[in-house]
Specification:
Layout: E1 2-7, H1 19-29, E2 33-38, E3 42-45, E4 48-58, E5 66-68, E6 72-75, E7 81-84, H2 92-106, E8 111-112, H3 115-120, H4 143-153, E9 155-158, E10 167-170
Length: 180
Amino acid sequence: MKLAFVADPLPSFKIHKDSTYAMMVEAAKRGHELYFMLQEGLMWKGGRVVGEISRLNLTGEKDPWYKTTPPKETPLADFDAVLMRKDPPFDAEYVASTWLLELAQKEGAKVFNDPRAIRDHSEKLAIAKYPRFAPPTLVTRLAGQLQQFIDATRDVVLKPLTEWAGNRCSASLRAIPTAM
């Protein structure tokens, strides 16, 4: 199978923990062809969704862990699967990418994760659908509310809704991120 990954720049991968890298390694082990493109390489051109896509080969080494060919404009429908693996920020460019990926689906591309689903469903707010299974949780931009929650809960993870990752902190923390 020909698999195209829409992802962050390859040099930014932390291969010891990156799930996209783990998917690539497993796919390569199974004999699939890997291709890579940046989010900004998505475009609608000539009436089709195409991408500036490079063939990706994994070296099996830590550094460099990959080799790529020069990018070539390729219709997304030419791939057996297109995997949207770009980390947030969830910004206008990300939303526009999901629009283009939806158009690619209409042209026959098999896109994973579904563009509408990743645009319309916040993975960080999904917990609100299942509150009985969730630890104590607060979603707010108010610094005072955050500090009260930290003081009461003592051990928390702060996660910005439109970014990725999080920061563990304790009640002694007084500098509250404002990008919540």
